[in-house]
Write a structure and sequence with these properties.
CATH architecture of the largest domain: 3-Layer(aba) Sandwich
CATH class of the largest domain: Alpha Beta
Number of domains: 2
Structural class: alpha/beta
Strand order of the largest sheet: 2-1-3-4-5
Length: 237
């Protein structure tokens, strides 16, 4: 059962989210300010924090900045509707997503699920570019340090930066279903728009370059209600 901590000084909101998320099988704790939030964190661990920007004492942006010096726990910020400055600053100080007030509990649930999926995805071990190996699959060679894709006879296939990052994300997680949110996080990092669906366009373009028949793709398969799966066997050389 994922454990959530909601930080807001509005008792009605805390009551609403507590009941709603408990009904959806989440563990829920609440806090009304930063002091209470850190007291809760000292008592137990949480999988995600939903943090309001406007709080008595230290505001949510300051608290998120402090959290990022101590923990990598995912954070969703609640901001005043239309306050773009708070949203931008929130992402800059380390929030994983944001939602404007007033908000739908169901939309917040969807965002919580998306952030938790991304945060639990295993990340490949980071290595200096000079020492990271070349990835070989189905006759293709993906040169990580040079950011190049080559055919079996060493002909280079031009890829945009976004296409290379997407192909690398697939190649480093072969033969497993990756949701669109996970692919966005792997290819673009955690600061992308949570509801960006341009990943489908990038997958389509990539298929045209690496699949023999893009109309019946074999390397990148669509998984209904799941996302995509890179089916090739991968070897590092």
């Amino acid at each position: 059962m994922p454990s959530l901590l909601f930080v807001d000084d509005d008792e009605d909101i805390l009551d609403l989210v507590s009941r709603f998320f408990s009904q959806h099988h989440y563990g829920v704790a609440t806090a009304k300010d930063g002091q209470a939030m850190f007291a809760q964190l000292a008592r137990q661990s949480f999988d995600l924090i939903v943090l309001d920007v406007m709080l008595p004492g230290q505001d949510g942006l300051s608290l998120c900045r402090r959290l990022r010096t101590e923990s990598d726990i995912p954070v969703i910020m609640l901001t005043a509707m239309g306050d773009q400055t708070d949203r931008i600053v929130g992402l800059e100080v380390g929030a994983d997503d944001y939602l404007g007030k007033p908000f739908s509990a169901r939309e917040l649930l969807a965002r919580v699920k998306a952030v938790l999926r991304r945060s639990t995805l295993p990340k490949p071990v980071d290595q200096p570019a000079e020492t990271r190996p070349m990835i070989v699959f189905s006759g293709w060679k993906l040169d990580i340090s040079r950011r190049e894709l080559r055919t079996a006879d060493n002909m280079m296939v031009p890829l945009s930066g976004a296409e290379f990052d997407l192909l690398l994300a697939f190649a480093e997680h072969p033969q497993r279903i990756l949701s669109r949110d996970q692919l966005l996080d792997l290819a673009r990092g955690p600061r992308h728009d949570a509801f960006d669906r341009s990943i489908d366009v990038q997958v389509s373009r990539l298929r045209r370059k690496i699949d023999a028949d893009p109309q019946a793709p074999s390397l990148i398969q669509t998984v209904r209600n799941g996302g995509y799966m890179f089916t090739a066997k991968v070897q590092r050389i």
